[in-house]
Amino acid sequence: MRDFTQGSILKHLILFSLPLMGTGMLQAVFGVIDAMWVGHLIGKDALAAVSAAMPAIFFLVALLMGLGMATTILVGQSYGSKNYEFLSKVLSNSFMLSSALALVLAVFGIALSAQILELTNTPLNIRPMAQSFMKVILGGLIFSLITNWFSGVLNGVGDSKTPFRIMCLNILLNIILAPVLITGRLYIPHTGVDLRLFGALGVAGSALSTVIASAIGTVIYYFSLRHLHIFQKARFHFKPEAAMIKKIISLAWPASLQMIIVSGSGLIIVSLANRFGTNITAAYGVAFRTDQFGAMAIFSVGMALTAIVAQNTGAKKFDRVKEALRYGLFFSVCIGLLYAAIVNLLPGQIAGMYTRDPEVIAAVTSYFRYAGISFAGLGMMFSFLGVVRGAGDTFGALVMVAINMIIVRTPVCYALSEWTPLKEKGLWLGLTVGAFVGAFLYYLYYRSGKWKDKKKLMEM
Fold this sequence. Notes:
The chain has 460 residues and is mostly helical. The chain is 80% helix and 2% strand. It has helices at residues 9-41, 44-60, 62-80, 84-111, 113-119, 127-139, 141-156, 161-183, 203-225, 229-233, 242-274, 278-314, 319-345, 347-352, 358-371, 374-390, 394-418, 424-448, and strands spanning 185-188, 193-196.
């Protein structure tokens, strides 16, 4: 655990964000491995099916992501102020609330999976596979929720190393399990071992490997952390408290609605891509998976800022916030530019890891040419959001995201792809326009200082 209210801000940001970044990268690897196994072991239609299902899954879990953000903020502020009684209430009530919501979303998503895929214009030939993938992932949603909850709590108290270590194990499990469950075979190269174990599960096997890895991660988290200092000082009391639930929800609903808007915009983007056929759907899926590396890296800087700002606002040390933002902007923009350079220098090689289809590879290359540079703008956006959320102004963050996604990004993507000869290239260009316009809007809100009005979150 790390106290961000003392010592060098730069040192804290680097030492805390690096394991966060490593965890984020591993999460991206998690998705890439699934996509690579699916693309090479089954084919481009299966890759397109997984690509079509992922934005819908992300949309459904947006509420849980908001609760996780609220937990991190409240844990960070209570830990920064050394208010362990308040921290105990946060831990107990956030866990109960998140678990209940995870079960509701799982049932809802599984029951309406066919209708959701129909609404997003998922091509008919890949819809059964996409639905199968969705059902398995949502069936194991509770395990993903618990691992993310543990990770959010640890981030709030300054421990980003433990989630990184457990994510390493999850990646290893997925590498081993995914090809076995997809094909139903145990094959070990250069050993002569090639055993048929059961019938091939296809894309459902890819999803099942993710669920099993998350379940094992949940068990490891529990046995590793039950004796941790924070859980000794702030013990669980499984008795719902209306005041605390109300406080968590008051922070969570703007963050959740923010993620719903982002994921809803993502659903519209994939729906627009689906109109151009399976090749473009598969290409967008490849690009989406690859983009997670850049997104997770800059998101990690934003999350580090959220934790640092939360602790310092809890300790009433607001002078350290501006310094944290300055460093955060520098690192996140540099990461965004580096990512843009890599994907534009090696587009064919990156796409070739997922598929051998030349049309899909060409479409992925086009995507990176138009959308790669958007990550510099996203880097600025995540930094400003990290500070605003860490101060507890999740409603301000919601307003910024809503304006950007609803008024700027989505309409621009639609207009450029529908009303110009650019077609799908216009869709990719719209992502870049949205990122830089959003960065400017977020800057204006930060400069307004309105987010500083949310300083009394610790009051009950």
